[in-house]
UniProtKB/TrEMBL annotation:
Residues 38-189, 231-372 form the Sodium/calcium exchanger membrane region domain. The chain crosses the membrane at residues 12-30, 36-55, 67-88, 103-124, 136-156, 168-187, 226-244, 256-277, 298-320, 326-348, 355-373. Keywords: Membrane, Transmembrane, Transmembrane helix. It is a multi-pass membrane protein. It is found in: Membrane. InterPro entries: Alkaline_pH_Ca-Antiporter (IPR052946), NaCa_Exmemb (IPR004837). This is Ionic transporter y4hA. It comes from Streptomyces yangpuensis. Its main location: membrane. It holds the Pfam family Na_Ca_ex.
Amino acid sequence: MGTTKRRSPLTDWTVLVPVVALVALVFSWGRELPGFAVVLVALCLAGAVLAAVHHAEVVAHRVGEPFGSLILAVAVTVIEVALIVTLMADGGDKSASLARDTVFAAVMITCNGIVGVSLLVGALRNRVAVFNPEGSGAALATVATLATLSLVLPTFTTSKPGPEFSTGQLTFAAVASLALYGLFIAVQTVRHRNYFLPVDTGGDADTGRDADTYQVDDHAAPPTAAAARLSLGLLLVALVAVVGDAKAVSPTIEAAVAKAGLPQAVVGVIIALLVLLPETLAAVRAARRDRVQTSLNLAYGSAIASIGLTIPAIALASVWLSGPLLLGLGPVHMVLLALTVVVSTLTLAPGRATLLQGGVHIVVLAAYLFLAVSP
């Protein structure tokens, strides 16, 4: 009898693709790419996104919720911040509003896009998507406060002309953002961790739920510590490749946006869409497994991290970045932000959502994207 040769895990696509994507980043960094190279880098970017989702799920299964969602959200956001700072340093005055545009796009995509799609998937599976209103409501309150302090107030302050903070105001916003982010992490992971655990619906979300019953563990055995460490390393490699390859194709994106006569803010929207792909796919897959709370953890956690880490980083970078730093939103975006907060509050309060709530969030995102292209 012959023996079946066991394949090495190092030859798996989830290992090879992030490495290939990182190699593509090394060879494309700082170079003007021809058309075929842009296509290759874009393919590497897509593969790295899928690999990042896989490794994030492995790590999440090992450490459990809400730590798994937190790791992916923080890792993506840290690298996103590095991308924003790099593009602002290279872009001059034309990138003065890039941080605002990208952060606001991330808030709208997470709070409407990821939440809406996750609720749709969860409702299609069980007729009603069930989640924990205490944890999700606390996360929404944190997002609303951070967004107002960092993106709305600069429009109305008078210390500097235009939608800008003075140095002191920017420092206050940075410290307040870090403090709120740290407090949220402490509540999410230590003091009230059970508020952020998936709710056990007993397989029938339409018959009601016990508010004190949570899905603590998956049925499958968790991966070994060695496998989790390997996936954590490969997750970081994949995320670096995602953001780096996004930067490599960003000149092509900026040229296409300018050629199409679209507003400069569209660049921030596209960057946010690319960077948030791993979290979007991970959230949808969690919702398909009846873990809508995990999807909401990813969505709101990403929004909180996007503001709570980007604003302090931009405040620090403003020491050496030349040119203005525009943070304040315009009237249209403030209306969309207010609508998002109101709709999200009504969605989260009952702890249950149907297809209607998911559809409402998707429409709000569609309105944001349409008005970004046609302001």
